[in-house]
Amino acid sequence: MTEPQTKKVALVSSDITINIGDVIIDIHGNRGVVDKICDCDKCKERGFYEPVWIDAYANQEYITESDRSSGFSSYFQIGSHRFPEHVDRGNTLSQINKLEREAAQAARRIENLRMMLEVTDDE
Ligand SMILES: [Zn+2]
Question: From the CA of 1, how far away is ligand 1's center (Å)?
Answer without folding.
Answer: 15
